[in-house]
Specification:
Elements (H helix, E strand, L loop, with lengths): L2 H5 L23 E3 L9 H14 L3 E5 L6 H7 L7 H15 L1 E8 L5 E7 L3 E7 L2 E7 L5 E5 L4 E4 L16 H23 L2 E5 L6 H15 L15 E6 L9 H15 L3 H4 L5 H27 L2 H5 L3 E5 L8 H12 L6 H7 L20 H21 L10
Antiparallel strand pairs: 1-5, 2-11, 3-4, 3-8, 5-6, 6-7, 9-10
Helix pairs in contact: 2-4, 2-7, 11-12
Length: 407
């Protein structure tokens, strides 16, 4: 049994044949295809995608509610038989960044219960109509086809505008990709030229045939430029009218142009050079999480929730959520300060503080402590009411003087 048979049940393959396309409002044919030129083939763009996907690895899946609660451990450790949770999240984030559309399909048991999730990377995806229902029909790079009901599939998108279901392609980044390619080619050519061309020679009394010119060039190189020339002198005969040495200069990258290219890529993928090079401080890391990682986590949570639960189950607060501990991005000093503040107020246990700081739990560390100078606000309010009542009672018993003033 191949991978396709494991992922797609037989009942969903019937729609993989030729059927009518599903009609949408805007008139676009609902088709998604992988672009021939991928942004994943360039070093800088791949680094930007990797930085984002690497942060997404840290997301923790949790299931709230009683329905499918047994699926929580599966999501936290091994969402499908072929990848663990870290690879699962990394792959979804990478596919979404490269194609602006990512597909997730449920893996089911023989009884039809969801037992896992699998991220797909099809060559082509079409929304078709079969039996009065919309289906997603996938075509893979090996030519195999399979289809599944649209309502059972999770679709993550970004840059979604013209298509009802899928994100846009990356043609907006194409000019920047061309600049990167041209600059890389220029660097390679300049290094090759500066490494090999040493002299400019003008021949005389030699035919202009290519083979004669090549023969003289090779002869000159063998006599003067080979490793056997230990004298340091260059000698040539009367066949050369002129011989000029060429000064080799290292190729210098245009710093302003490179900065602009980098900024274009950073803006497109929502990263920065500090994020790519792991130099960001906690404020920059928090900003990256809020602006880039958190929207991905929210969309993934919504997609898997809608795939897994019925409308009734969602109404009873059953959901899947992907969250991250924001304190992971904080410095040790910040973590220590937070632990100190919450520990003596009963907010954290000793083991929770130790976990925050990266230390293992200890025996008896699950108790909470409160400093003695603190008291419960409701308790204080009751004590104040009792004091006020006593004071009012004392004042009512005191006799009044001639002016009507007590005490």
């Amino acid at each position: 049994m191949g991978l396709l048979n494991k992922i797609f049940p037989q009942k969903s393959k019937a729609a993989s044949g030729a059927h009518e396309f599903f009609k949408v409002f805007n008139g676009y044919t609902p088709i998604f295809s992988n672009a021939a030129e991928s942004v994943y083939e360039m070093e800088l763009t791949r680094a930007a995608i990797h930085a984002f996907a690497n942060f997404c690895r840290k997301l923790k899946p949790e299931i709230y509610g009683d329905a499918y609660k047994t699926l929580e451990k599966t999501l936290q450790f091994k969402p499908n038989p072929f990848m663990d949770t870290s690879k699962f999240l990394y792959r979804i984030a990478t596919i979404l960044s490269v194609n602006n559309t990512a597909f997730i399909i449920p893996m089911e048991s023989e009884r039809g219960h969801i037992v896992g999730f699998y991220p797909l990377l099809p060559q082509l995806c079409e929304v078709i109509e079969f039996g009065g229902k919309p289906y997603l029909r996938y075509t893979f790079s090996n030519g195999q086809r399979a289809a599944i009901e649209f309502e059972r599939v999770g679709i993550l998108t970004q840059f979604q505008y013209s298509d009802e279901f899928f994100g846009e392609d990356n043609r907006a980044l194409r000019p920047t990709m061309q600049l990167i390619h041209a600059q890389n080619q220029g660097i390679v050519s300049s290094i090759k030229n500066s490494a090999f061309v040493r002299f400019l020679a003008k021949l005389q009394n030699v035919s202009t045939q290519d083979k004669d010119i090549e023969a003289e060039r090779d002869k000159f190189s063998a006599l003067n430029l080979s490793g056997e020339n230990h004298s340091g002198l260059i000698v040539y005969g009367a066949k050369f009218a002129e011989l000029k040495p060429i000064e080799s200069k290292p190729y210098a990258i245009n710093a302003a142009q490179m900065k602009q290219i980098n900024e274009n890529v950073f803006n497109y993928f929502g990263v920065s050079d500090k994020i790519l090079q792991n130099k960001a401080n906690e404020d920059e890391l928090n900003a990256f999480y809020e602006g880039k990682v958190a929207p991905f986590a929210i969309q993934l949570s919504n997609v898997l929730t809608n795939m897994t639960f019925t409308d009734r189950e969602i109404a009873f607060d059953n959901k899947i959520a992907f969250t991250a501990n924001m304190l992971e991005y904080a410095s040790f000093k910040t973590k220590a300060d937070i632990g100190r503040v919450f520990l003596d107020r009963g907010g954290f246990t000793i083991n929770e503080v130790r976990k925050l700081l990266g230390y293992p739990a200890i025996e008896g560390g699950d108790r909470r402590y409160i400093r003695k100078e603190y008291a419960d606000t409701e308790f204080l309010e009751k004590e104040l009411e009792i004091i006020n009542e006593k004071q009012q009672g004392v004042q009512g018993d005191e006799p009044a003087d001639d002016n009507g003033i007590t005490g």
